[in-house]
Amino acid sequence: QVQLVESGGGSVQAGGSLRLSCAFSVNGRYCMGWFRQAPGEEREGVAAIDDDGTTRYADSVKGRFTISKDNTKKTLYLQMNNLKAEDTAIYYCAAGPPGMRTTYSGSWWPRAADFGYWGQGTQVTVSS
């Protein structure tokens, strides 16, 4: 049984920082990612880390967000710096099949439809 539990969301002023954590129970090789969904919007990929450590970021967060994974602690992180009002959303942790860097070579990934396991989400609110 795969379980993903996010924590670390909250309210912060623009320019501030938050670190999201996702405790996961998956075993084996997975691609793991962070997605977000704002009211009235589709769920979008924010960052992902493939089973070999390859990372991928949405252009909107590149240079501000950092994804990392501690396999010993079985925890996925998303360090978010210089937050903006448009970062306000519910953030979800997800796990999917490994090798997306190869599957989508030259194309955008992560794609929500490829991820089969999801956490419950954590709210991030950035006030300007």
Task: Describe the 3D structure.
Helices cover 3% and strands 46% of the residues. With 128 residues, the chain is mainly beta. The strands form two sheets. Strands 2, 4, 5, 6, 9, 10 and 11 form a seven-stranded mixed sheet that branches. Strand 7 (65-70) and strand 8 (75-80) form a beta hairpin. The longest helix is centred in the last third of the chain and has 4 residues, at 100-103. It is globular, with a radius of gyration of 14 Å. The relative contact order is 0.31.
List keywords for this structure.
128 residues, mainly beta, 7-stranded mixed sheet, 11 strands, 3% helix, 46% strand
Topology, please?
Elements (H helix, E strand, L loop, with lengths): L3 E4 L2 E4 L4 E7 L6 E7 L6 E6 L5 E3 L7 E6 L4 E6 L8 E8 L3 H4 L13 E2 L3 E6 L1
Parallel strand pairs: 2-11
Antiparallel strand pairs: 1-3, 3-8, 4-5, 4-9, 5-6, 7-8, 9-10, 9-11
Mean pLDDT across all residues, rounded? 95
Radius of gyration: 14 Å
Q: Largest sheet at a glance?
A: 7 strands, mixed
Basic shape? globular
Q: Structural class, from helix and strand content? A: mainly beta
> Element order, helices and strands?
EEEEEEEEEHEE
Q: How many helices does DSSP assign?
A: 1
List the uncertain runs.
none
What's the number of extended β-strand segments? 11
Strand percentage: over 45%
Short description:
Helices cover 3% and strands 46% of the residues. By secondary structure, the protein is mainly beta.
